[in-house]
Design goal:
By secondary structure, the protein is an alpha/beta fold. It has one domain (2-281): Alpha-Beta Barrel (TIM Barrel). It has helices at 15-26, 42-55, 89-97, 103-121, 140-148, 165-171, 175-194, 215-228, 258-265, 268-276; strands spanning 2-11, 32-35, 61-66, 127-130, 157-158, 202-204, 233-237, 279-281. Strands 1, 2, 3, 4, 5, 6, 7 and 8 form an eight-stranded parallel beta sheet that branches. Helix 1 (15-26) packs parallel to helix 9. The chain starts with a strand and ends with a strand.
Length: 282
Amino acid sequence: MTQYTLCADDFGLHQSVDDGIISLVKAGRLNAVSCMSIGKTLSKNAQALLEASKESSIPVQIGLHLTFTEYAPVGDMPILAPDGGFPTIEALIQYAHLGRLNQHEISTQINRQLDVFKDTFGTLPDFIDGHQHAHILPTIREALVSTAKSNMSPDGWIRSCDLPFSEIIKTKISVKRALIISVLSRRLKTMLFKNAIKTNGVFYGVNDFTSQQDFAQMMQVWLHSAGKSDKSALIMCHPGQLKYPNDKSISDPIADRRPDELSYLASEQFLQDMRNYKVELG
């Protein structure tokens, strides 16, 4: 059996997201959870996540989901978030490639989010990644690598979002988006190797979050690919327990897709698919 990592992103974003992730952790269906320091429910539900990880039949890593889009920063960011809110991912990509991000401000924000994580969980994160993959962008990646050298445990790692182009084309899932993310991630991966920072070998889970995509079918493709890979595979997911269209306190563009992911990952079909493709969480 080939071992792989299945990581649920966005813990701390909303109670329904946290409840869904905690239920999967308890059931041994996840072995990594990425937490948003900017999330409104993180402090409330962190202890429940730790307790769930102890109940799990498999070890569960808890990491930091660095956030530079959509929501509010920790403290002031007068250059990137002058009105108190982060830009969209499209705007952030433009700023990053036009050299309009201030590295000192970015580094300060990374450290603030790290401090929130450490204060909440009492430990350094097992790994670091980025909401909407913001950590792979210019300036942010340099600041992250520099900060990680002194703020990660010896076994800590940073998520790479790279997948060989031939593999992306073979999956036939959100090919254009996956190619762009992989290209942007290559520079970060080189930096991680150069600085002897651990990372995953291949990355799956990129999709368009549309109702036309069947999550179970996509997971079967990714599980099959992970089972064939000779590199450490990471699959990201975004489960959530309930839809929350009437909750005006949170903006979540993928809210409608979260219950489908939760339903599949909690199902017997997921376990059978892992057996079929000879993979296991580990």
